[in-house]
Amino acid sequence: MSLVRESLANDDLRFGVISPWNEGDVTCLAASERRSSAQNKPVAIGASDWEETHLIPGAFDYHRPASVAAATALLAEHGDDARVIAGGHSLIPMMKLRMADVPHLVDLRDLTDLRGISVADDVIRIGAMVTQHEIISDERLAATAPILREAALQIADPQVRYAGTVGGNVANGDPGNDMPGLMQCVDAGFELAGPDGIRVVAARDFYESAYVTARADGEILTAVLIPVPPEGAGWAYEKQKRKIGDYATAAAAVTIAVEGGRCTSASIAMTNLSDVPVWAETAAGALAGGPLDADSRTAAVAATLDVIDPAADNRGPVEFKKHVAGIILRRAIDRAAARAGLGEKT
Amino acid sequence: MSKMHVKLTVNGREVEGLAEPRTLLIHFLREDLRITGPHIGCETSHCGACTIDMDGKSVKSCTVFVAQADGADITTVEGLTNPDGSLGVIQEMFKEHHGLQCGFCTPGMITRAHRLLQENSAPTEAEVRFGMAGNLCRCTGYQNIVKAILASADMLNAAKEAAE
Known about the structure:
The complex is a heterodimer of chains A (346) and B (164). Chain A is an alpha+beta fold and 346 residues long.
């Protein structure tokens, strides 16, 4: 026993970098790592302090504001010490590992303005607190923009989908999340409420680097606005993952608009293949204007592979990820084209 | 850090307590309320052993702060028995079809299956597998769990028809 026990006690057993493991979740760490977690101080096995030996976060003040104005006022009052929580399935695991220290937790669950899905003639509005489960269950949304249901069904697992919100998924800036790439594909806008009022930032302009977005510290993302897709458009969200609940090894969102048997416009975005979602504008251009023949599809895939920048991690080396990205994207293009009535599903 | 007053409905009974907001709901249920049906497996929202029903949703109670659950209506596996204390239909079917071996995942499995059947009273086998994907079992290989849930659906639907 002694060798293992000694190294545990010395806190020598490092399991390397803390890497994202599961969608809406953080990681699996050795018990020794959990116990010492963020303080980086060794904790002896058998330590009696309940706080140190349980997987719980540091203390915080809990706020449950009743209005968006009250929530932004809390953010203004507490600055960097405050974080908003929606479904919490990204933030709570980070807090449990003490990788996130949140002295003031601002829970958005009572903000009814942030709930609900509405479909108007030209725009779909999804409140930030709408869950993945609600996206999947909304028949009108599925009839109007079915790519949302197809993507949401591939996120995490049932329990996490009841909790995880569209607002949290897009606002967190996690490159592994599926909604950011999807929202870039469908050209969504993100509505942000702050002390100076409301503004809308395009999803395609929102992501700066991993976890860094255009949202200012005092702002709350309140809704996602999606243009209603044209009648007859094709769509697909294709994701390769190692197991249920995993982040994508590669995922692709594709929409294709058609008129008179030709592709009039297309949009392609990729997930988890860079530190931000990748909207591949040039690649989509290879599809637009043509009949979506095999050559144009191959060209679109090649152009997309030029603009992704995957990093090697426990899902595989760079070469493997590019290989998977190419296959996943081709499948997505083929399925979107078939749904648009252009060409055989290959 | 100061404690907050928490009020919940658990298995139809109103309960109150003082707890730090950061207390995980699973710890509050098990250690304060002594409701030990929901288990702590991974404690990292992977395994589903701590699954409870909260306001009509299946939730992993290791990933909810008790503060977030203030005012919530919660059902655990204890609340799925019949009023006379005998096993409820899903519990009985898990027993009947050998849907457990060591039993550690079973409370989470049954609680999740309850919500799944509330939402889809006649699921296909594929729908059961997809709907149960947030719960891990290391013993059974899932086959008998799926069987037990499909049998539960049949039993519940037959009982509903008989009542009409």
